[in-house]
Amino acid sequence: MNTATLLISCPDRKGLSAAIANFLYTYNANIVHVDQHQDTTENLFLMRVEWDLTDFTLDMEAFTPAFAPIADRFQMEWKVALSSRRQRMAIFVSKYDHCLVDLLHRYRSGELPCEIPLIISNHPDCEPLARFYGIPFHVIPVSKDNKAEAEAQQKALLAEHGIDLIVLARYMQVLSHDFTADYPQRVINIHHSFLPAFDGAKPYHRAFARGVKLIGATSHYVTEVLDDGPIIEQDVIRISHREDVDSLIRKGRDLERIVLSRAVRWHLENRVLVYSNKTVIFS
Amino acid sequence: MNTATLLISCPDRKGLSAAIANFLYTYNANIVHVDQHQDTTENLFLMRVEWDLTDFTLDMEAFTPAFAPIADRFQMEWKVALSSRRQRMAIFVSKYDHCLVDLLHRYRSGELPCEIPLIISNHPDCEPLARFYGIPFHVIPVSKDNKAEAEAQQKALLAEHGIDLIVLARYMQVLSHDFTADYPQRVINIHHSFLPAFDGAKPYHRAFARGVKLIGATSHYVTEVLDDGPIIEQDVIRISHREDVDSLIRKGRDLERIVLSRAVRWHLENRVLVYSNKTVIFS
Amino acid sequence: MNTATLLISCPDRKGLSAAIANFLYTYNANIVHVDQHQDTTENLFLMRVEWDLTDFTLDMEAFTPAFAPIADRFQMEWKVALSSRRQRMAIFVSKYDHCLVDLLHRYRSGELPCEIPLIISNHPDCEPLARFYGIPFHVIPVSKDNKAEAEAQQKALLAEHGIDLIVLARYMQVLSHDFTADYPQRVINIHHSFLPAFDGAKPYHRAFARGVKLIGATSHYVTEVLDDGPIIEQDVIRISHREDVDSLIRKGRDLERIVLSRAVRWHLENRVLVYSNKTVIFS
Amino acid sequence: MNTATLLISCPDRKGLSAAIANFLYTYNANIVHVDQHQDTTENLFLMRVEWDLTDFTLDMEAFTPAFAPIADRFQMEWKVALSSRRQRMAIFVSKYDHCLVDLLHRYRSGELPCEIPLIISNHPDCEPLARFYGIPFHVIPVSKDNKAEAEAQQKALLAEHGIDLIVLARYMQVLSHDFTADYPQRVINIHHSFLPAFDGAKPYHRAFARGVKLIGATSHYVTEVLDDGPIIEQDVIRISHREDVDSLIRKGRDLERIVLSRAVRWHLENRVLVYSNKTVIFS
């Protein structure tokens, strides 16, 4: 099915639902999914609506001018996405390959509606895997001394391939603020703890030392502040006193894979809206 | 806040959302919650919309005639509920009191928006608890021989107190078909297994014998077929080989309490729609 | 069944298991539960063994001198507990009564093997509940000015009633270090977050502000440092963007009840061993 | 670390623990893991003990005659396994490759202590994947007409490669009783439902039709009766009314991968004991 998805965020006002519903009805939209949410404390209206384009009488090239009066009237932040235009996703990875294996398998089995034009790594280890899936693999070593140059190289590749979304699949380098500022809400990271607990380095070791009874993983958009961006998804698993740090790391890999892949899929399906450093997931 | 909630189920057709949104906008509704769902296989449209009545310009007494043309045009099954009119709930219980204790505490702390005019039991054991919460307690013993009379007595009490919803809080008698037919989608039961596994008697014993690794509980609407009605909520908890049947029963009580109370609250908040022997939960 | 339970913690050395097993076999112990754990990083041996006393040929009055040579040889920290001697538990509560209701119901239904000689509160609100369960209720108001006196009164009551364990069932006062030092590993608190995230005040509000996707609760032994004692149990529940702070608080109550009651039961059944600010749960 | 693991199952009798502990102490065993369980209803004693072989003074070639007197005295069923002798595992697969991808990645990253000398499939689809991991891949088509011959071929391959364990990673053929009888408790299957619910065909479709609120997956040993063997592991995930059968299948894949891999790992680490059509997991 060929669909369009509209994501809207604006101050909540009467008449909003009617205005949007009437607009879509005017052009004979066959709606397949609607979800909306009102944040009463912030007086915000947030909506996702997806419709089948088969009978839609408005040419999508003309959508923006046609919708603009409504968007202006209600001071909307909005975007529209077409299922026919798959997002272009780059994966950054270091040596740990479990998230990469998982993303590539989901990609090939059709779970992730995207193109993956390239994988970037600071190590060559994952290259055979990339080759197996037929995806160009670029090794760009990163050290204290060459960080700026390395990022320049990375940026050039991203620009060249028209990348929409960057996924840090256990990429062990911190991106500079300049870098992430270029991709607001378009860099997804997986952190191996239940944030805000154990942000920063060595979360499994610290979870072990603290004696927690559950460990977690968190996928989030990357912002200026380390491990502080809007959380997209989290999950946890129970551990016992029988387990050592290695066991936590092993169990954690399963969480990381699943939590990261959910976030990536939701992003690619235009199910995520960000406000106030939080996310709404229109699932 | 004084609100009205509209629940709608009808064949999915273009213009539905617009018709409803326009109707509400016409009377200046301040919408606080909307959720809708399309079942594409059955071509069904299901919706819950709740609005603040403060600025609503249509007298709710006049709602039905005003909304009827839209309802007719789209062949809706619908109902509207007012938060000012709390549902009247009867609890049936036998000797196990853990669900009763839980419901009464939630009721008193304001979690359950309802009145509880009476508790009916086939045993006197729970009477002190009912008295503590100030709720009339009726003992109606049930045996093979007097079942019809007992149900007649129960029905008379329910009618007398204008009961909307019956909650079977581990009530150990099977209600007759005649009885439940009088309260379609208005009798909620808690079954102590993860249905459809272990329907019928002694589910914990059978779960133990089968060697499952998780046990569950299921709340559902009661229908003609035992343990086969629309499922409202389910949950599970992990067990280990260290646990015996008594331990399963103990752990299961926590599930039963929580799973039943969620179902009851969702029903009372008009969040449940039933179709095709399933439920939609507008949470 | 009348049982004895031995809890042991000591440096791990060869021959430990054999020494303990031989000792118990010598006196014809009928073992019903054994669990042991080795922490290889700290070279610690931790064990719980419970045996039926029916055929046990050693008088339990003579247990300590009989076991002492083994305990000395292996530098054990150890204790033995008899199921015939139920621990004496005091509950501290403020105004929120959900954990209290839960503990009292479990107590009366036999889930918690203890005596509850008294409940202490800084408010009179929960008194009717205590009276319903037939448990003496002492109101000791606490303010900045009278804290020392109030604690003196509390301590006097605890001493008078021979209290073994203090449970803080959402008691909204911080106990002084002097107080908790008198009851090492014998004061259990419930904190309404997934520690170490959101320690301190208003965890639900902060969880809401951070936009987490799961909320949690943590039961732990109280130590000098606020919310930093050994964790006994934790659990979490999923939340969505649809939920506000009130909803988090409501959902959290279910977690608090369950997480606290598990910790209390495990403690009363002598299933908890503490080392390195962590717990081993011999379940 | 080079270890030996002893698994014991026998009638529970006094002196058992002492006899085993003394035996191991006699030969200077450095125990790294002990777990034991008594099933009081069946009067069974079940134990797993693992020890470091570094200082062990008994040659493992001589273990059986040395241990035999104790084993005989207590009527033990027992086996001893050496970590130095990795089990040889065959994977059977059809077209769905998600479990295979997962097992092979875990195998290569060292999570699964085994050799994988071959993969057998009734379709050629997964061959590139097998080649990527360097594992011989045998295509043996199966139809109604050639089933006996196909199994004969499979058996010959298994015998030739000295296979200890067969993992059915979504293998879509039912093995004959003769076949499974040759590998008692050595064939692990993944069933895509929470057994005993939805045993047999099309479990996701039936789960969808029944309107359950959670879906599950179950790994179990294969026996004569379809989907009725001893359960090794189960897990579930929540679904909502928003999800269709395709979504259940997608979510279920994550469950299948994790539930199967846990069972395989526990089996390979000699953590599973079977009795009364149940499993004890010494985790």
Give a summary of the structure in a few sentences:
The structure is a homotetramer of 283-residue chains. By secondary structure, chain A is α/β, with parallel strands linked by helices. The first copy, chain A, has eight helices and 13 strands.
Could you name the key traits of this structure?
homotetramer, 283 residues, alpha/beta, Alpha-Beta Plaits, Rossmann fold, 2 domains, 7-stranded mixed β-sheet, 4-stranded antiparallel β-sheet, 13 strands, 32% helix, 30% strand, globular, purine biosynthesis (chains A, B, C, D), formyltetrahydrofolate deformylase activity (chains A, B, C, D), Formyl_transf_N (chains A, B, C, D)
State the helical fraction of chain A.
25-40%
List the helices and strands of chain A in order.
EHEEHEEHEHEHEHEHEEHEE
CATH topology of the largest domain in chain A: Rossmann fold
Mean pLDDT of chain A: 96
The first-level CATH class name of the largest domain in chain A? Alpha Beta
Please report the number of helical segments of chain A. Answer: 8
Total number of distinct structural domains of chain A: 2
Radius of gyration of chain A (Å): 21 Å
CATH architecture assignment of the largest domain in chain A: 3-Layer(aba) Sandwich
Tell how many strands the DSSP assignment of chain A holds: 13
Principal-axis shape of chain A: globular
CATH homologous superfamily placement of the largest domain in chain A:
Formyl transferase, N-terminal domain
In terms of quaternary structure, what is this? homotetramer
Largest interface: A-C, 31 and 31 residues
Strand content of chain A: 25-35%
Strand order of the largest sheet of chain A: 7-6-5-8-9-10-11
Summarize the main sheet of chain A.
7 strands, mixed
Q: Which structural category do the helix and sheet elements of chain A fall into?
A: alpha/beta
Domain ACT (chains A, B, C, D): 5-85
Pfam families (chains A, B, C, D): ACT, Formyl_trans_N
Protein name (chains A, B, C, D): Formyltetrahydrofolate deformylase
Organism (chains A, B, C, D): Chitinilyticum piscinae
